[in-house]
Specification:
The chain has about 450 residues and is an alpha/beta fold. The protein contains 19 helices and 15 strands. It has a domain of about 250 residues: Rossmann fold, CATH 3.40.50.1100. Helices cover about 40% and strands about 15% of the residues. The strands form four sheets. It has a seven-stranded mixed beta sheet, with helices on both faces. Strand 12 and strand 13 form a beta hairpin. The chain binds pyridoxal-5'-phosphate (PLP).
Length: about 450
């Protein structure tokens, strides 16, 4: 009975897979504030040429730089596990596999993109990167990349997380990054929001505005985003490319692939390489799982919206709850961004990817069951994908169908124990983000959209 399916370092992917090559239609382009396709110049103010090229590329395979692959070897290829003990607890005939991305130095999948992003910026002569972070994993991952590749990192951390997750802040500082609670009074965007609402808990959209403003204003500084954009989805495909080989080692192929979805990067990472098979005619379900309190894919609309709160970024065609959406503080599980990856959104709109939303108590129950059977305490984000997988495995137990289920364990929850504490204390409530509030936020969409 094999538990871990391991690839040697020589099997580390040499190329990223670009899903654009297999989409049924070309992705709608980003637009400028005037409603016309955004010029590459607008992107060049905050991103290096290497990443812009990837952002607009339709090439199926893009080579991973050798220095990036060498750094990846610190934790990649990551292991694929068969969840024997979870299967047993569920009395399911389903075969459950999880790809364990928690083995990276920061404990999540995010260094898969922070390392190449820092590398391409360094190639372009950039000295500093500004970024936002919500729960702190992205800030940690970029701090790590800055440390390994010699770039200064400044992180605008959503205030509510800054207060709730002090150890994420210390971790970023351990890797040499500067960290501020956002909104700050260091930027015009931050000051504008503090003036209107001094007690704001902050949001990812606000923190993005601050980081982008800084990157636009300084020639030595670029901006880095941990999810949503096409080049981020591209970088994360190392997850699924490895998983495909590992499923073959297990003599199996998934009937369904599950990933949690905030901005969409870990879902894209595990699912896109299997989409390549689907595009070639193979049957496989790809399921993106989000919280009911931030239901971007299931309740948002597919349209052009800004990536940040104050309208500094180009407009992206994506599922959105409206760029001024501020997620409820009651929600403990991450995945709080108002939008979603344009590539994932396009696939959901084309009904090639399924989306579902799960309430938070069920996600923590799934996290606990996983921790108590498989031993790893999952990140609250990952528990969404686990909960969906467990629902499917239970369905298999009822019908007697032996399906093969693959799930991305996007990270561990060692820095999120305060969320588990709230669950243990019975403080968490299921919460559907009110349809009224969504309607209100959507009323502020850019007018020509
Ligand atoms: C950031 C993060 C996510 C969500 O990112 P996506 O871009 O939506 O995939 C999920 N899990 C963990 C552990 C994370 O750190």
């Amino acid at each position: 009975m094999t538990t871990k399916f391991l690839l040697p370092e020589s099997e580390l992917p040499t190329h990223w897979y670009n899903v654009v090559a297999d989409l049924p239609s070309p992705p709608p382009p980003p637009l400028g504030a005037d409603g016309k396709p955004a010029t590459l110049d607008a992107l060049a103010a905050i991103f290096p040429p290497g990443l812009i090229e990837q952002e607009v590329s339709a090439e199926r395979w893009i080579a991973i730089p050798e220095e990036v692959r060498e750094i990846f070897k610190l934790w990649r290829p990551s292991p694929l596990y068969r969840a024997h003990r979870l299967e047993k607890a569920l009395k399911t005939p389903a075969r459950i596999y999880y790809k364990n991305e928690s083995v990276s130095p920061t404990g999540s999948h995010k260094p898969n993109t922070s390392i190449p992003q820092a590398w391409y910026n360094k190639q372009a002569g950039i000295r500093r990167l500004a970024t936002e972070t919500g729960a702190g994993q992205w800030g940690c991952s970029l701090a790590l990349a800055g440390q390994l590749l010699g770039l200064e990192i400044r992180v605008y951390m959503v205030r509510v997380s800054y207060e709730q997750k002090p150890y994420r802040r210390s971790m970023m500082q351990t890797w040499g990054a500067e960290v501020f609670a956002s909104p700050t009074n260091l930027t015009a965007a931050g000051r504008q929001i503090l003036q209107k609402n001094p007690d704001t808990p902050g949001s990812l959209g606000i923190a993005i505005s601050e980081a982008v403003e800084e990157a636009i204003g300084r020639a030595d500084t670029n901006y880095a985003l941990g999810s949503v954009l096409n080049h981020v989805m591209l970088h994360q495909t190392v997850i699924g490319l490895e998983a495909r080989k590992q499923m073959a080692l297990a003599n199996d192929y998934p009937d369904a692939v599950f990933g949690c979805c905030g901005g969409g990067s870990n879902f894209a990472g595990i699912a896109f390489p299997f989409f390549a098979d689907k595009a070639a005619g193979r049957e496989v379900r790809l399921v993106a799982v989000e919280p009911t309190s931030c239901p971007t894919l299931t309740k948002g609309i597919y349209t052009y919206d800004f990536g940040d709160a104050t309208g500094l970024t180009p407009l992206l065609k994506m599922h959105t709850l409206g760029h001024d959406f501020v997620p409820p503080g009651i929600h403990a599980g991450g995945l709080r961004y108002h939008g979603a990856s344009p590539l994932v959104s396009q696939l959901v709109d084309a009904q090639l990817v399924e989306a579902m939303a799960i309430p938070q108590i069920e996600t923590f129950e799934a996290g606990l069951l996983f921790a108590r059977t498989e031993g790893i305490v999952p990140a609250p984000e990952s528990t969404h994908a686990l909960a969906a997988t467990i629902r499917e495995a239970k369905r298999c137990a009822e019908t007697g169908q032996s399906q093969s289920l693959l799930v991305c364990l996007s990270g561990h929850g060692h820095f999120d124990m305060s969320s588990y504490d709230r669950y243990f204390a019975g403080e968490l409530r299921d919460y559907d983000y009110p349809a009224e509030a969504i309607k209100d936020s959507l009323a502020h969409l850019p007018k020509f959209a």
